[in-house]
Amino acid sequence: MSIEILESNRPPARFYRGGRRIAEFRGIGPVGEREPEDWVGSVTTVRGEAPAGLSHLAGGERVADAIARDPDGWLGAAHVAAYGPDPMLLVKLLDAGERLPVHAHPGRAFAAEHLGLAHGKTEAWCILTPGTVHLGLVRDLAERELAGMLEGQDAAEMLGAMHRLEVGPSDVVHVPAGVLHAIGEGILLVELQEPEDVSILVEWAGFAIDGPALGHLGLGFDRALGAIETRARTADEIAALVHRAGSAGPLLPAEADPFFRVERVTVDGRAELSPGLAVVVVLDGEVALAAAGSEPEVVAGSVAAGSEPEVAAGSAVAGSEHRVGRGTTALVPHRAGPVRVSGRGELLVCRPPSPSAG
């Protein structure tokens, strides 16, 4: 069991435009106008459209099936003891070809009680290109006022009730469940989230989705709006959710610990990633990845944007070395052990919550 290099996995016909920046980042051919998301190492399906969303290994097996067959090997015994055979994580590349609608996601307690789900959808955005986001309310909203916004579908009114933030490359934004938000046009990001596809829409006018039918998760808006935070957050509270590029300290606040972990690794020579399930995104440069358990057997991979692997992605045996470049995504199972990284580049290492957080 070794490192798996993953091919692009883009669910088709999403309700907002995007995808070009994902293609450029990954160095792949043209994508459809509405393929704005790349679900990486996913065991999650698009709501109501299964099996769309599921990722596959190089041999064709679904990642979900591989984990179910050997949960300890993929996730580690401590993770399985804490969470069962559940990876507890979904990672996406997201390209906002247009501003996303104002929406929020239910938290775990609401999702369990009303939807029978094991997760809500707390998320975090690792920004790759600059732009504007809206996050949280600048003033308290009465329930009737929020309901009036749905009825009126006035985008200016909705956005005016929210904090507006300029974000740049390497900023990281934590988005707790329940908090209203909208990602601005032109932003490319890596998203970590709980592994569910559940959104409550406040805005849908002008988007390719039937909001009145689909925006409330089948609960009706009277119930679904109960999952949305209607209290104002101060500017300081919002600032605490954003880790700015170059700032010291962890990329995510402590409140994210029960949901996921992320670190940015800059390599200039050699580095080592600790053992454990991880989704690795190569942000820049050229590096070699190898499970540290044995001597490497070189396997060609994409070494720059636009190049194609010379062998099937993920076909390496244990201990093999993958030479990869910008836009590569890799899935590292727990049993691969520590991962040696050599070369020059920058990686984003995304992980589920630690077993102790469970």
Structure commentary:
- By secondary structure, the chain is of the alpha+beta class.
- Helix content is 18%, strand content 28%.
- The chain contains ten helices and 18 strands.
- The strands form four sheets. Strands 1, 13, 14, 15, 16, 17 and 18 form a seven-stranded mixed β-sheet that branches. The protein has a six-stranded antiparallel β-sheet with strand order 2-3-10-5-8-12.
- The two termini are 26 Å apart.
- 47% of the residues are buried.
- Mean pLDDT is 93; it is low at 294-318.
In brief:
By secondary structure, the protein is of the alpha+beta class. The chain is 18% helix and 28% strand. It has ten helices and 18 strands.
Tally of DSSP β-strands: 18
Mean pLDDT: 93
Distance between the termini: 26 Å
How large a portion of the residues is in β-strands, by DSSP E? 25-35%
Mind telling me the C-alpha Rg?
20 Å
Helix content: 10-25%
Secondary-structure content class: alpha+beta
- The gross shape turns out to be globular
Low confidence ranges: 294-318
Largest sheet: 7 strands, mixed
Q: What count of helical segments does DSSP give?
A: 10
| Topology as a string of helices (H) and strands (E) | EHEHHHEEHEEHHEEEEEHHHEEEEEEE
